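[job 4417] fold queue: 2 targets
>>> target A
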Amino acid sequence: MPQSFSNRSGRDLVSRFRRSLSALVGAEKGRGQVMLVAFSGGPDSTALLHLLLETSNESGLKVAAAHLDHGLRGEEAERDLRAAGQAAKEAGVPFYWEKADCRETARRDSLSIEAAARLVRYAFLARLKKKIGARWVATGHNADDQAEAVLLNLLRGSGPRGLSGIHPVRSDGVVRPLLPFWRSEIMEYLNGRGLTWVEDSSNDDQDFTRNRLRHDLIPKLEKEYNPSVKAALARTADILRQEEDYWSTCLNGLKHDLSWEALDSRVSLALEPLAGLDRAPARRLIREAVLAARGNTLALTLDHVDEVLDYAASGGRGGLDLPGGVRAWRDGDRLLIGRFDQAEPPEFEYELNAPGLTLIPELGLRLTAAVHDRPGELDLRNMGPARAALDLDSLTMPLRARTVRPGDRFRPLGMKHMKKLQDFFVDEKVPASQRPHVPLVLDQRGIVWVGGLRPSEDARLRASSTRALVLSLE
């Protein structure tokens, strides 16, 4: 064994790694679980792979390697793939790989190549993690990467979240056990163990901002301003990450106050309490909404966030387009943020099988109709909005189910007069975006049930009713 790793410093590094890993995954939780390593074959991921294997007896982890060809470096990328596969084979771990087209992603989503590569890489790791049943994904980010990330985000004008840098553990199971280690320590480990790795020539390409920062700006700051500037930047990340954790707790309470709803890549929140918030928490909530709708906040700037808040407060119509195909728009007393569906509202009309089953594929619904000869035994109070009991003998058959049309009117249950369906939706606080998706049931005279909301007074069950038709939406 080389001298550098026969001494105390070598043993200390492995011991420190063991403690770092345990802090991220738990001393006992890892036993029998799979950790997927993002394995480029470079120095950081090579050290990570072997440190995980070296400590696997204590951690109980099973290790697998994942390699992504970003489609950017041609023959060199193919060389790296072969080298990574061979290294994984020699280490005795399963190896998975995939090739992507990051340039196409960058073009489609209006991203830099660096941002697109990161987006594609994490999507690949997430898919593979789910496919093989891994518990965690480990990446080789180190303390130098942390310092560079903080400085880069500072130059971009990021807020506290950006300046909190690279987080040791993410909610999606991504962990960074090498984050406490400097690049020099990692190289010492590799040389001490006699391990080999591949060098990515793009790491020296000065066209990439991060490379210029690493090779030019940070050395200049160390020489002319602060020899420990990287440690200072990493310390800043630690401080702000703790503050971000505190803010996350606060935001959960604010979400409750704003009646926050997240469904199908779309977030909805109440406008009035949002307008009452200070700018700082309001900005964080908008960023959280975009993150929930899109999965990331790439290319979302402070100007975008402030435009959304100004739009929400203005009472204006229309909406705002945000990066990544996300849109913000008002819907009644709520603000919606999500991937905006430009498709035309569904159009359908079906004759109901009564009794029987009618499918409404445009809405993904099943509408069943059942006849009850003892309507007095029905528990009308506990039927719920997805069911309605109508007086069968008062209906003029056949029944139809169709979409909402301009000018629709009906007499809601409990009312004496006809009401425009548009006004009924406003009173019931049904968002405009959802109204085209409400199914209507009609007999030959008009609407007898606004599906999921209320039946018509004209078709209600009475004490004298002898037969009921019970409609159910699933």
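>>> target B
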Amino acid sequence: MNLLAPLVVIALGFLVLSTQLKRFAPSERSWVVGALALHVVAAFGQVWITNYYYRGGDMMFYFDSGRFLEAAMSNGPSSATSEVFKLLVQQDNVFSRDVEGSGSSTGSMSALAAFCLLLFGGSEYASCIAIGGLSFSGTLATYMVFRDQLGPRLRTRLLIGTLGMPSVVFWTSGLLKEAFAMAALGWMILALAWVVRGRWALGFAVMVLTGFIVSLMKPYILFAFAAGAGGWFLAARNPGGRGLTFGRLVLGFIVAALGLVALGAVFPSFSPANIADEAARMQQVGQTVDGGSNYSFGDPASRGIVGQLAFAPIALVFAVFRPAIFEVQNSMMLLNALETTTLTALMFIAFRRWSGRELRTELTSIPIISFSVAFTLVFGVAVGLGSTNLGTLSRYRVPMLPLLAPLVLVLAAPRRREAPAAAAPQMGARSG
């Protein structure tokens, strides 16, 4: 293995991070630097495990296709680069041989592999380290939004929830769709916060760019984001959590619904009218693939929205709580099972510490919390319905975890008493 390219990428990554550390308190900096270091380690692990443990996989398929495209750009005319760019944005393209997945997210990943290989001298390790750095920036952006809205007392829990989830670090440190989706989603959330605070031009520009990236990789994330934006709008109009009215609920619903309708027009296969058919198709495909951890609870024949929504609660439970410890079949599944088991235990603690009324107040008064709840509900159902294997489920739910984990960790935190004359309750001030 040529170590020069990986070492150069690592040095550049930490150099860029060093210029941004002044944005963080001294107590945060070691966590932030450590999180980036974990992505570097995970990037090496991704390449090694995919090559020598799994002996192939999605990432190696992208790299193999990318090598053909990278050779075309290196040896051919400049038009080859434009054709690879067309492949990236899922437009018609022409090559000397067919590129599998052209016109879909698979083709986009092959194009990204080609550009990474061209930029990093053909090094898979350097490519994955750079991609891990990008996804780290997305989770760091998510942390900054949580931190700004919840206050300093919860920083450690927020750092663990956004930057320290093992499955997130691992699955976003390689040439995988989840890595690019996570990077873009985190910046979309930060851009939404900018827009709400009045930084319209910058916020909308970043949101459009990152939203386009998400649309190339996993467009259904945009639907969960639209639902989350409705939750954000609801909480922003409900400071203190004591003014939740039917009118405000309707306004929040309208914001989310308008976003869903607009996205459905752009992505017809994921529109409310077609999403049930898409879920049934994925369930049918999953039943034809043999795997050691397959599961099934939906009916591929149920192509109506009612037939699929009947399984929505089960799908959400699967997405959040599985695999369980007793389902572990290998070391990778053990990692995921420990994660889900920990989150499950923390959820039970949270429900014991908060009454139903208090919980409703907290969940509907802080924008990033309301966003996280709405996003998790929509995304969790979508992933649960569309997955048929515990291994892929653990990977597909990754974009949800940096929102779900800090939410659970915060709600499970020990309560802090306030003086009777204190202002309206805020989670950051009431929890430790």
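[job 4417] complete. Note on B: The two ends are 46 Å apart (CA to CA).
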